């Protein structure tokens, strides 16, 4: 059985064993797929950014990045991908086609940016954990004007932004809170305690419900975004590190690190409909699954297995692991582009 102490200790290790690309039955050959587009992976142990062709599972480009890169976000037009440099103070922007770096945006001393969103309005938003704040970057590829908003909370880690860009919400690991930040009026932020170590966060497509997964209490909370009232508590698997809503808006999944599984939540009933086993519980501590990402059509789920340097591709309807391919050295942050040529 995996203890929470061992999970937290393993999160800080930078020298876990690598793994060659393997299929669902252990074969080492690359497996062709009808998936299209490109997957971008931040290698937090190797300090890299990689591009993977989803049709073949092959890495088509890899470049050096900043120290300890984490979350990624693609631009609305798909031409660029932004990287949060958790080991430093910048947001770095790369072209998706060849991974050439085109912009570095400085956030200031001890910023440690982690969560990142590239909204349809073409502006960037990121947490700065070391400054207990959120940054709004206007025109990131041009003037890159920055505006900082204090959360007042410890461990301001992940975030979502409303489609109208009026509000941002963060999970604050150290303070055990979720915080709403008004991006336009700069009213005082509102924070509420939610479970133990809230980390994962997602906003429904209509903006009506905020979902937060608390890894220390094994629960998901459905929250009213404006009043910050907890409407519903949903028990899920062990150590739910991330939560992601299917593009169709009908289901959400949590990445249950200690189970090596995904809890599938029916958002209409607010209950766990099923669990998908990505690995066994015995394998979970070695694989160390972290970030989860839906394909644009909602048919596949990509799971970053940071400990074995692999990405698992999971079929949502059947729950089967279709294949595994290399995710670089400590692959963690994920972003995706659909289309035949990514």
UniProtKB/TrEMBL annotation:
Domain of life according to the entry: Bacteria
PROSITE patterns named in the record: PROKAR_LIPOPROTEIN
PANTHER family: DIHYDRO-HEME D1 DEHYDROGENASE, PROTEIN NIRF
NCBIfam families xref list: beta_rpt_yvtn
The protein's name: Beta-propeller fold lactonase family protein
Organism: Qipengyuania pelagi
